[in-house]
Amino acid sequence: MKDLQIGIKDGHKGVIDGHIEMFDVHISIKDVQTGRKARQKGMKAVQIVRIQWIYGKERCTDRNE
Length: 65
Prior knowledge:
The chain contains no helices and 7 strands. By secondary structure, the chain is mainly beta. The protein has one domain.
């Protein structure tokens, strides 16, 4: 699995059907494909299975650690 850290400047909370809608902070997302909500602030990236699509303007850093 890969660690994926996502920082999105503007937007709101919500992970729906494996889709990330826009976050205003660096967040940790796990099991995104299940639609779990992850909006904790200031957390390190966690292992995820899959991200299908990211809406809005974002910076994606793909890490293998």
